[in-house]
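Predict the structure of Cell division cycle protein 27 homolog.
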Amino acid sequence: MTVLQEPVQAAVWQALNHYAYLDAVFLAERLYAEVRSEEALYLLATCYYRSGKPYKAYRLLKAHSCSTPQVRFLLAKCCVELS
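Done. Here is the predicted structure for Cell division cycle protein 27 homolog.
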C-alpha cells in the first residue's frame, strides 16, 4: 500500500457512507488509475455498484480476473441485478 492509497481509500469509503456517490467514483477512478491494485479495483467496482451502475461494475470486474471472495461476491451481486 502506498502513501497515497490509504487516505484516498478512506475518503472514498467516507463518501460512500455519506451517499456522495459522484465524489466516491471520482476518487476511486483516480486511485485505480494510479495504483492498479486488486483492492483499488474492488473499491472502484463498489462505487459503480452503489451509484446505480451495476453494468459498469460488472464489466470492470469481468475484465480483470480477481479471485478474492469479496470481488467474486460483488460480481455475483452485479449478475443478479443485471439478470
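Residues 12 and 26 are 9 Å apart (CA to CA).
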